Amino acid sequence: MTDNSHNGKMLLVAMELSNSKWRLAFSGGDKVRQKVIEARNRSRFLDELGQAKEKFGLKDAPVLCCYEAGRDGFWIYRWLKSEGIGCLVVDPASIEVNRRKRRAKTDRLDAESLVRLLRRYKDGDRYVWSVIRIPDEQQEDELRLHRELERLKKERTAHRCRIKSLLVLHGISVSGSLSRLDQKLDELICWNGKPLPEALRSELHRESERLSQVSEQIKLLEKQKLEKLKAPQTHADRRAAELIRLNGIGEVSAWVLAKEFFGWRDFKNRREVGALSGLTPTPYDSGGSCKEQGISKAGSPRVRRVMIELAWSWIRFQPESELTKWFEKRFAHGSSRMRRVGITALARKLLVALWKYVEFGMVPEGAIIR
């Protein structure tokens, strides 16, 4: 991304985003010029970009922008690309920071620091931060269904707990399904034999209605997911269908792994697979101190959670696989802590094996195919 007419110079732009305003830091060399504009004001952004080019004498030079991944998502990246402007979306947790105990932090300082890091990255230092790979619009849209299901199930649990808590306040304990509780309110009796108070009855009625609505939405989304798995249309759907063929992998696990991990990401080797899942170890070996700090927990928490659950399921439903035999030999007869350590290691190995399965057709050794 160099331009010979400007001796390889480039206008660099760092964007510090908030909901009400954007702070822009421009740099064409050592100097930094900052401007504040209204959030999402695209025409004002382009005007400020043109003024910065004139200010730095880089009228025809290419432009490279960067901003931290966050609430605004990836639409800014796609818009800048449509304008012919280069853009990097940066993982905020990976940005290099000063390790002094106390430091000043303002949007102005953050924007200036970000544009200076962008210059180092442009000059070849690839370790100042990690750049996020951006899914296309269809791939991003495919993330919606299972993430909405995840939120709805949490909401359903919250409504159930709220209903039970309200009843316990009056000495009433219920078990089983709460789906028809609204029809049984007249039958419920408080600890003293009196019927439910009027305000409590009204609140329980509203909670029950919200619970029913959420439950219906969950059923609808689950039905849509099953239909997509039966007749896969997209690349991620086909990956999910392939994963379900392995004994021990259900619809939920296959769907999350395909949509969040295998459906659109490109991995060069097993180290990238482990690193993105956050299942890689983090040793501390300095001077006379040497210890293991646990897994890194970087990357996708959804994939990490699914893989831990899937590792336990793999041991149960794939007892003759080499991965299960490896776990049984090294960790099965140890303490409960050693088994938890071992299941994390198995989850990492299993994720790599599943990547090889969907990418290269290599069935995990000894695994049962449905």
The amount of beta strand, in percent, is 5-15%
Give me the strand/helix succession.
EEEHEHEHHHHHHHEEHHH
The computed structural class is alpha/beta
Q: Which CATH class of the largest domain applies here? A: Alpha Beta
Major sheet: arrangement of strands: 3-2-1-4-5
Question: Which regions are unreliable across 5 or more consecutive residues at pLDDT < 50?
Answer: 1-5
Could you give a quick summary of the protein structure above?
With 370 residues, this protein is of the alpha/beta class. It is built from twelve helices and seven strands. Residues 1-5 have low confidence and may be disordered.
What does this structure look like?
Residues 1-5 have low confidence and may be disordered. α9 crosses α12. The two termini are 50 Å apart. β2 and β3 form a beta hairpin. By secondary structure, the chain is α/β, with parallel strands linked by helices. The protein is globular. The longest helix is centred in the middle third of the chain and has 33 residues, at 198-230. It has 12 helices and 7 strands. It folds into 3 domains: 4-134, 2-Layer Sandwich (Nucleotidyltransferase, domain 5), CATH 3.30.420.40; 141-230; 235-360, no CATH class. The chain has helices at residues 42-56, 75-82, 107-122, 137-141, 144-168, 198-230, 235-244, 251-262, 270-277, 301-317, 322-330, 336-360; strands at 11-17, 21-27, 32-38, 63-68, 86-90, 281-286, 289-295.
